[in-house]
Specification:
Layout (H helix, E strand, L loop, with lengths): L2 E18 L4 E8 L2 E5 L2 E5 L3 E5 L5 E17 L10 E3 L5 H15 L4 H20 L5 H13 L7 H5 L6 H12 L3 H18 L4 H7 L5 H12 L3 H9 L1
Length: about 240
């Protein structure tokens, strides 16, 4: 499990940050501006959306003619899916950016249950890097993922509804999805809903309200599904956060 040690934002455009290093991995997501970060003896150019993973105890410094902003995160118990200096680019939906901003909010507000939420968000960021390290994606699979994520809160929304929006047959889409992810689309949607439910419960929402917000207004069915995927009831999960 990834453990979040620190997260900060350079919100006012900076032109130079001097040489420094950290004892743990640092991930930097550049949000505006262009420039160069020099890691050890290697100069790496960056632009908005560039993600650079900085190894422990390697000096690095940044320069930018017109200024840049970034989100920087330090993790312990973190392993990147690439060697050397792993470099990635955020996707068109800015998935990494939105997760990083949510992580920043949770880490600094430190409301009830903040630490497990931060660690889970850090784990999700790592999963994105794993995905991008594996190369090209399949458009139909990514479209189906996006549809399921965007509509998981809608009562009664099903995998069939999402597949009706694809340009290929449902059977073909199902096979592609299973091959690419190792998970059936129905299971994937359930995991999305339970992950969202865990976050809402950790933020203090009531079980009956959470059920509605994740598209499962039948509280009894929601509790059964939650227990099946989380190994405990929603109320038991809330109790573990408070212990």
């Amino acid at each position: 499990m990834v453990a979040v040690a620190h997260i900060g934002i350079v919100g006012t455009p900076a032109t130079f940050i001097g040489s420094h290093e950290h004892d743990s991995w640092e991930l930097v997501l550049y949000t505006s501006g262009t420039g160069t970060i020099t890691v050890g003896a290697t100069a790496v150019p960056f632009e908005p959306g560039t993600i650079i993973c900085l190894p422990p105890r390697i000096p690095h410094f940044e320069r930018s003619q017109d200024g840049y902003t970034n989100i920087h995160m330090i993790f312990s118990q973190f392993a990147t899916p690439r060697t050397a200096i792993p470099i990635f680019n955020d996707d068109a939906q800015r998935s990494f950016f939105h997760l990083a901003m949510q992580l920043h909010r949770e880490f600094n507000l430190r409301q009830t249950g903040w630490k497990p939420i931060c660690d889970h968000l850090g784990e999700l960021l790592g999963r994105y890097l794993e995905r991008w390290s594996q190369g090209a994606t399949i458009p139909e699979v990514e479209q189906l993922r996006h549809l399921l994520l965007e509509n998981l809160h809608r009562p009664g929304y099903s995998v069939g509804d999402a597949m009706a929006m694809l340009s290929c047959s449902s059977d073909h889409a199902r096979r592609l999805f299973l091959k690419a992810t190792g998970t059936a689309p129905t299971t994937y949607l359930a995991h999305l809903r339970i992950a969202s439910a865990k976050r809402l419960l950790a933020e203090g929402a009531l079980v009956r309200d959470v059920a509605v917000q994740v598209g499962l207004p039948d509280a009894y069915y929601f509790s059964r599904l939650f227990r099946r995927h989380a190994g405990m009831s929603p109320s038991q999960y809330v109790a573990t956060l408070r212990s």
